[in-house]
C-alpha cells in the first residue's frame, strides 16, 4: 500500500501517482504523427465580433487584470478610454457584501511613430480578502462596465490551484480557437501564465499599434475576469530606430503594469509572485542577463528566498526556451541556459515554461551543467533535481507553426508536436500536480500530452529522510 492523501475530498495513494509518473516517462522520444494543415493562420478581420468596441462615448475597453502585489491580496486593473481620460477609479466590492469601495489609479499615454494611444488606466486594488469573489466597475454614467474576479487562497503548501498556459497568441482564427478552448476546458484555469509574444503588432507595417488595441479587446473576455501573468517576448521589444523608436518595450510597458517592485526587482520585465501553493519567477530573455547585470543579480538573490515549505511549487516563465529540438530558433536560449541552468537545478525548479518556438514540446528531467567547454561532457543527462522544460509557443499567431524538427529526436525530448493549443497545470497538493497539453483539433481541444509532476522539493526531502533511516 502507498501513503494515502486527500485532494478535494477524494483519497489517493502515492503509489498510484508514482506509477502514472513512470508511464509519462515511458513516452520519451515521441514525435506526434498528427499533422496540421499547411499554410499560415489568417488574421481575423477587423470587423470581427472579438474586436468590437463597447458601445457609448469613451466607454472603457481592453480591460485586463494581473496580480497586484507579491502575496496575492492585490489586483492591478487596467483599461483604456479612447477619447478622454474619464474616471481613473475602480469601484469594487465582495460578492457577499453591498459595501462598495473605491480605488484610484493613474493614467498614461504614449506615442509610437504616427500612433497615439488612448488613455491607459492602471489601478491597484490592495488588501483584498483571500479566496473571495469580487465585482468591479469601470467607467461612469451610461458607459459603466462591470466585471468580476476571484482572489487566490492564502499561500500554503497544500493549497490546490489551477493555472492555464498560453504563449505566442496573436489575433488570428487559430488564436481565437486557442482562447476559446482554454475558456471551455472542463478543468478551469484560475490564472493564466502567459509566456510572451502578445499582439504581434510589430508584424504589421510600421509596427501598427492599433493592433495592440484590437488584441486588447480580443483578450478582454478572459483577461478582465482572471489574472494574466505577463512575460515579455521578442515581439514586445518594438525597437525600430529607423522610424525613431529607440525605447525598447515602449507599448508593452505602458499597457501592462506589473508589481515588480514588490519582489525588489528593478524592471517590470523580471519579477516574482506567490499564488496559492506556487512561487512564480518571470525572467526576460531579451534583457541583459549576464554576470553583474540587474536581472542576473536579482535572480541570484531571489531563488534563495523561496520558502518551499510555504509555496512548494517553483515555476519559471521565460520566452525563449533553453531546450528545444525544433530547427527554427534552435539553441537561441543556449547562453541563458549556461547562465541559469545550474541555479534551476540547485534550487530544484519544478517546471520551466517558455514560448517563442511555434509548437509544443516537453522535455525529460535533464541538465547539462557538467559541460565546461573543455571537458567534452556536452550531452544532457538525466537529472532528478532538474526541471521539466515545456515549450508552449503555439497560441496561433499569423507566423504559422514550426514543423521542421531536428533528427533524430534527442533523448531529452519526451514529446513534441507542431500544433496549436494551450496547457493546464493543475496543482493538487504539495507533492503532486497534473499537466495536460490540449491540442486544437477538429473544432475541439484534445489532450495530446500529459504528465504527473512529483514536486522536486518534497521528493528530495523524502529521499533524504529514507537515506537517514
UniProtKB/TrEMBL annotation:
Q: Amino-acid biosynthesis: present as a keyword of the record?
A: no
Database matches in Gene3D superfamilies: 3.60.21.10, Purple acid phosphatase-like, N-terminal (2.60.40.380)
Which residue ranges does the record assign to the Purple acid phosphatase C-terminal domain? Answer: 386-445
State the EC number(s): 3.1.3.2
The Calcineurin-like phosphoesterase domain is annotated at: 162-360
Instruction: Give the matching CDD domains.
Output: MPP_PAPs
Task: Say if the entry is tagged with keyword Repeat.
Answer: no
Ranges for the Purple acid phosphatase N-terminal domain?
A: 60-150
Cite a single GO MF annotation: acid phosphatase activity
Cofactors, names only: Cu(2+); Mn(2+); Zn(2+); Fe cation
Q: Matching Pfam families, A to Z?
A: Metallophos, Metallophos_C, Pur_ac_phosph_N
Q: Which keywords accompany this UniProt record?
A: Glycoprotein, Hydrolase, Iron, Membrane, Metal-binding, Signal, Transmembrane, Transmembrane helix, Zinc
| Residue stretches spanning the membrane | 12-35
**Its catalytic activity?**
a phosphate monoester + H2O = an alcohol + phosphate
- Quaternary form? Homodimer; disulfide-linked.
UniProt record similarity statement: Belongs to the metallophosphoesterase superfamily. Purple acid phosphatase family.
Protein name from the UniProt record: Purple acid phosphatase
